[in-house]
Specification:
Elements: H1 23-35, H2 43-79
């Protein structure tokens, strides 16, 4: 539930209703407010970001492989399967 009172206890006025516009005008505004203001990455930035993702995936894969190997080795030690 929204608070309709300010800090002084007075009731705030309701926001004015927006004027309805056509569908074409709506999409023109969407384009003006969204697509035209986007700064698209360059090919180099996209390449570097992709490489960083691949590197981080590789490092994460290596980390979990080592953790899994250590835990499996510890389990084998506990049950006496390692000589």
């Amino acid at each position: 539930m929204t608070d309709t009172t300010s800090a002084t206890g007075k009731e705030l006025p309701a926001p004015a209703p927006r004027a309805r516009r056509g569908v074409i005008q709506f999409f023109k505004e969407v384009r003006r407010e969204g697509i035209d203001k986007v700064t698209w990455p360059t090919v180099r930035e996209t390449y570097l970001t992709t490489m960083m993702v691949f590197i981080m995936v590789g490092l994460t894969m290596l980390f979990f492989f080592v953790v899994d190997w250590v835990l499996a080795y510890g389990e084998r030690l506990l049950i006496g399967a390692v000589s």
